[in-house]
Design goal:
Distance between the termini: 56 Å
Number of helices: 12
Number of domains: 2
Radius of gyration: 21 Å
Number of strands: 6
Order of helices and strands: HHHEEEHHHEHHHEEHHH
Largest sheet: 2 strands, antiparallel
Shape: globular
Strand content: 5-15%
Length: 318
């Protein structure tokens, strides 16, 4: 009996030690850089373009008018959207489902209720590494795991533009994530430890891949394993991802060059899709934020099309 108690006691202390190590060593992070971004007109213009067109930051960080095509943002862009209540979908975002706690889209304007006291390095780290000002793991509804693919130059341009937003007084409740999700998300952040170069804009396929990645095309258009939530190998960009829209279930489009996807579409037709300002035939088209991506240049949309035409043609039915 004494031996059994000793074994149980040892197991308990090992478990306790493991839990303590977990709690005090995660999330993984590095200290924010000390850099101060001195914005110039070119950088602000690039940041404006990335923020409002490619990354679509107002999709989450602004109120949106879902009565209009594409759910355009309601100014001011950086005011922060309402929070979810525990277990309830976010307002205006039916596809979010029940979230594990009270989760807010932060006010990212330079107001004291926003990120007034954040350093440039802290903002950069939050955007690309998922670490907040207090070194906490951010809930991954913020797609830092995608934005980590931003080049250093583009990330700095976005921060420079965010700093230029009009300050908005919009207090939001503190995010409170339920157990055990609050512990699980600590596993996700992964520090960036090497420079991220600017993509080659003279290579349309490579640049199109870069734009497609940071614009989150794969995130919505690639079927995912129900457990790991990773894209299923061989089905990247094959569509068929289920979303709970405002008027029922919807499925994302196949973006591969298969006949069921973009195989019959020309480059001009692809670009034209993003130039629409209305579509009365689409009952629930607001889930795809056309009004944001419609701000992308013809050249960038053409680069994305070139990349999508280069991926394997795949047929997929959910």
């Amino acid at each position: 009996m004494r031996k059994l108690l000793t074994l149980l006691g040892t197991a308990f202390f090992l478990l306790l030690a493991t839990v303590l190590i977990y709690l005090f060593s995660l999330p993984k992070f590095t200290e924010p850089s000390a850099e101060i971004i001195e914005a110039n007109p070119e950088q602000l213009a690039r940041g404006d373009y990335l923020f409002n067109a490619v990354l679509g930051c107002p999709v989450c960080h602004s109120e949106r008018d879902y009565s209009q095509f594409g759910g355009p943002p309601v100014a001011p862009f950086g005011g922060g959207r309402a929070c979810s209540d525990t277990g309830k979908p976010l307002p205006g975002l039916a596809e979010s489902g029940g979230l594990p706690g009270t989760i807010c889209f932060r006010n990212i304007t330079p107001h004291e209720t926003g990120i007034f006291d954040w350093t440039d390095g802290e903002v950069l780290r939050a955007v690309r590494e998922g670490i907040g000002k207090e070194n906490q793991a951010l809930f991954p509804i913020m797609p830092y795991f995608i934005y980590r693919n931003l080049s250093d130059e583009d990330a700095q341009s976005v921060v420079a533009y965010v700093r230029s937003l009009e300050a908005v007084d919009h207090s939001l409740p503190d995010t409170a994530i339920n157990f055990p999700v609050n512990l699980a998300i600590r596993l996700l952040p992964d520090p960036l430890n090497s420079p991220a170069p600017q993509p080659d804009t003279n290579n349309p396929i490579a640049y199109g891949k870069y734009l497609s990645t940071v614009a989150r095309c794969s995130f919505c258009h690639s079927p995912r394993d129900s457990r790991s939530r990773q894209a299923i190998e061989g089905l990247e960009l094959a569509g068929g991802v289920e979303f709970q829209g405002h008027n029922g279930l919807m499925y994302s489009t196949n973006l591969t060059p298969h006949a069921e996807g973009l195989g019959e579409m020309s480059e001009a037709e692809f670009v034209a899709l993003f130039r629409r300002t209305s579509d009365p035939s689409a009952a629930d088209i607001n889930l795809m934020p056309w009004t944001y991506y419609g701000n992308m240049s013809d050249a960038d949309l053409s680069a994305i099309f070139a990349y999508l035409q280069s991926v394997p043609a795949v047929s997929y039915s959910p």
